[in-house]
């Protein structure tokens, strides 16, 4: 267990391209599974639970947020180690969570704007489901952009050692 924690959270050392891509795929699968599980739990609470939904929804969102933060932290550490193997600064690995955070901030601002004046965006008798679906796609794109940056870092070819 200690070796697994050290592998995913220790920024020391270097990592090969194959190992990085394998670890990236495992972390991406865990992120997708957590998103599906969280969505399933939230939907089952909204439609099937008659008790106090507010505290349950808060706990599910908090658990999802902590899990996502741990995933991004481990992906950033792995990307920094991969960048070290390429002879580059590991600080470039912070670009992926930064892009995700900025995209989610833009989504949040847009969602608040749309929620505040939902009726203004749809005419009488029109279905507003497309607007909500568009916002959900934008939120998904935020996570997709960060994962693409991590994948790009992993697919970079190793540089030959510098000659003295």
Outline of this structure?
This protein is 77% helix and 0% strand.
Account of the 3D structure:
By secondary structure, the protein is mainly alpha-helical. Helices cover 77% and strands 0% of the residues. It has helices at 2-9, 17-48, 53-85, 95-116, 118-121, 129-155. The model has no long low-confidence stretch (mean pLDDT 77).
Topology, element by element:
Layout: H1 2-9, H2 17-48, H3 53-85, H4 95-116, H5 118-121, H6 129-155
Helix pairs in contact: 2-3, 2-6, 4-6
Low-confidence regions: none
SSE string, helices as H and strands as E: HHHHHH
Evaluate the radius of gyration.
20 Å
Question: Roughly what percent helix?
Answer: over 70%
What is the count of DSSP helices, taking H or I runs of 4+ residues? 6
Q: What is the β-strand count? A: 0
* Main beta-sheet strand count, sense and barrel state: none
* Oligomeric grouping of the chains: single chain
The shape is globular
Identify the notable features of this structure and list them briefly.
single chain; 164 residues
